[in-house]
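Project outcomes to date are best conveyed with an example. Our students and postdoctoral researchers have been running inverse folding experiments weekly, and each run begins with a structure described purely in tokens. The record below, which covers 235 residues, was selected by the lab manager from last quarter's runs and is presented without edits.
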């Protein structure tokens, strides 16, 4: 069974930055644990988040979806979620899925911290969490909280289960037909390319967003151009 280890610490002059260190594999089985942690931070109004992925060897579509599902809310609160230290194999998929147009990435943690306009120094203050029972069990999904001093630490109430239906709801039948038509015509269009086609006069979906298109592709296992090409030949 795949395992994921998550540790939290605070950084920045006023400890306003949350550094999430993740080790292991972020897939369908383990992604929910990371999602709980991020949702918990947002409930505490901590909107400056850096995810250190140096110890992550694989991220599935479900894992990538976690990083962008709340990005609009985070930025509306004048924060951001930044990714740091991805290994080459993980970064290759990140680019393939075109998330580089949505999220900022950094090779160095200090660069990510500086991008928030904060000091690059890390005070090493742990964020002490009151974890739900499922997160303190050994094995898959366990979270390791460091035990440094409590000054500036953030206390977390029990972490609530996220509403997965909100993140991946079913698109309308009309939008479904239009996306299928666009992919059949040109399966190599990027996600932004599909969005622009939908927003054109020909399709009239002026309010459709990048995230709407991604949700549809995700629900049909078509997040890569290769998968869209193979399926378009069967339609």
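After processing, the design step wrote out the following sequence:
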């Amino acid at each position: 069974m795949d395992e994921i280890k998550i540790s939290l610490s605070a950084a920045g002059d006023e400890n306003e930055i949350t550094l999430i260190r993740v080790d292991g594999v972020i897939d369908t089985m383990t992604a929910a644990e990371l999602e709980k942690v991020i949702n918990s931070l947002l409930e505490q109004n901590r909107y400056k988040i850096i995810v250190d992925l140096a110890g992550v060897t694989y991220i599935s579509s479900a894992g990538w979806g976690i990083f962008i599902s709340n990005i609009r809310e985070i930025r509306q609160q004048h924060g951001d979620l930044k990714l740091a230290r991805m290994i080459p194999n993980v970064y290759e998929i990140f680019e393939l899925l075109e998330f580089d147009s949505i999220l900022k990435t950094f090779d160095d943690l200090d660069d990510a911290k500086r991008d928030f306009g904060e000091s690059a120094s890390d005070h090493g203050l742990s964020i002490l969490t009151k974890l739900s029972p499922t997160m303190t069990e050994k094995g898959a999904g366990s979270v390791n909280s460091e035990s440094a001093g409590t000054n500036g630490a953030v206390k977390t109430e029990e972490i609530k289960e996220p509403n997965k239906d909100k993140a991946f709801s079913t698109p309308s039948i009309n939008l479904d037909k239009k996306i299928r038509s666009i992919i059949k015509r040109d399966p190599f269009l990027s996600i932004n390319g599909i969005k622009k086609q939908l927003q054109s006069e020909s399709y009239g979906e002026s309010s459709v967003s990048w995230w709407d298109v991604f949700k549809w592709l995700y629900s049909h296992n078509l997040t890569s151009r290769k998968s869209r090409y193979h399926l378009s030949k069967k339609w």
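The longest strand covers residues 48-59. The CA atoms of residues 114 and 120 lie 6 Å apart. The training component of this project remains on track.
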